[in-house]
Design a protein that fits this description.
single chain, mainly alpha
């Protein structure tokens, strides 16, 4: 009978040791999962920041290109207005000379 009690006590000790080992393994798994999740979160944030910077740079470049086009078009229109103004001025001078001459 003593042998049976000793075997039961040994079995209980082994079971308790296995339970403690399982608890420790579970704690390590949870800790490792948290660390991996944190690393993954940091990687995702870094990727998002990189993509955001690329989008901002693309938008800035597109904005600069559009501003350049608008400026060039404005300069073309200014030149056209200068030509028209010069032509109108010359016609006004011609008309003024014609009035002075009495034509």
């Amino acid at each position: 009978m003593e042998d049976v009690i000793k075997q039961i006590v040994d079995a209980e000790k082994q079971a308790e040791a296995r339970i403690e080992k399982a608890k420790e393994d579970a704690r390590e798994i949870v800790l490792k999962a948290r660390e991996e999740a944190k690393l993954l979160e940091m990687e995702i944030i870094q990727n998002a920041e990189t993509q955001a910077e690329a989008l901002v740079e693309k938008a800035r470049a597109e904005g600069e290109e559009e501003a350049k086009k608008v400026l060039e078009q404005g300069n073309v229109e200014i030149e056209e207005l200068k030509v028209k103004a010069t032509n109108n001025f010359e016609r006004a001078i011609s008309a003024g000379i014609a009035l002075v001459r009495g034509s």
